Amino acid sequence: MLAMDTNWQLFARASDDRAALAELFERHRHFVYRLGWGVLQSGEAAEDIVQDVFLKIGSGRLKAVPNARFTTWLYGLAINTAREHARKRRRFWGAEDANEVLEKQADEATDPERADALRDLAKALAMLPIRQREVVLLRFYEGFDTQETADILGCREGTVKAHLHRATQTLREGLAPYKTERT
Amino acid sequence: MTDGTNDINELEALLGHTKAAYGKLEHEGVLSAGARRRFNSVRYASFAIAASLTVAVALFALTIVNGGGPGMIPPSRLATSLPTLAAPAAPTASVGSHVFTRARQFPASFSMPSRPTASNG
Prior knowledge:
- Chain A is mainly alpha-helical.
- Chain A is 74% helix and 0% strand.
- Chain A has helices spanning 7-13, 18-40, 43-59, 70-89, 99-105, 112-126, 130-141, 146-153, 157-182.
- In chain A, helix 2 runs antiparallel to helix 3 (43-59), helix 3 crosses helix 4 and helix 7 (130-141) crosses helix 9 (157-182).
- In chain B, 46% of the residues lie in helices and 7% in strands.
- Chain B contains four helices and two strands.
- In chain B, a hairpin with a 2-residue loop joins strand 1 (92-95) and strand 2.
- The longest helix of chain B is centred in the middle third of the chain and has 33 residues, at 33-65.
- The mean pLDDT of chain B is 65.
- Chain A binds chain B through residues 15, 25, 29-30, 32-34, 37-38, 46-47, 50-51, 54-55, 58-60, 101, 104-106, 114, 117-118, 120-121, 124, 136, 139-141, 146, 158, 160-162, 164-165, 167-168, 171-172, 175, 179, and chain B through 1-4, 7-8, 10-12, 14-15, 17-32, 35, 38-39, 42-43, 46.
């Protein structure tokens, strides 16, 4: 019964057992996709990150210590994979790249509010340097606490707090004109 | 240093309305054909390496059992165990009715031309 297996049990078998890998994929692909999209602001890049992450898991070459939470470990892997992609592309994706996701995922005719929200999200994330963006995604959108965010990013709690503070300042200043525009 | 709570509250005020949209971002596809091929090739490569190692270990063990260390097969056994090698056919090429073999590409009288010497005209 795959559904009863813990994530770590599935991970241990993933390199030999396709069904275990498929179960892990089904459980976590949206999670990894969201993070990839948030960091790189591109649906296509996020798809690549999902594939790379699960190919790495399926290759059986990853070392993991199962005393951490699986999601913490998996997010760390996803973040590192996203950073590899960002390095390869030598640039961060701008808000215009988010349009492909808007077209695919938000049906403006039936859900204009969601389309607006996605646009605002893309606009806000595009204002931030990649480290601050990662912290905002993990801490604010995914709801990890400061220590977990630090574990995922491989840094200290103080660094997470500092990035979060700077990101908030940047967003406060950057989004102010839009807020005034709307009111 | 802030504990982060104020920042989170401010982010909530600035971007709270985008949270639901973010939560609904979903990976739509399954692994692409390219990714599946790469995954299969990873598995195939591991299998090939494992198979090669097994064969190498088996040969090594066979050599030891047969009374010699690695690289110490007695000449008498070697002579009987090696397959007879046929001489490879000489590669040929033809131009019209003339057939060249690689060993006879040049006539026996062929020699390298001597190097030109400088002259003052």
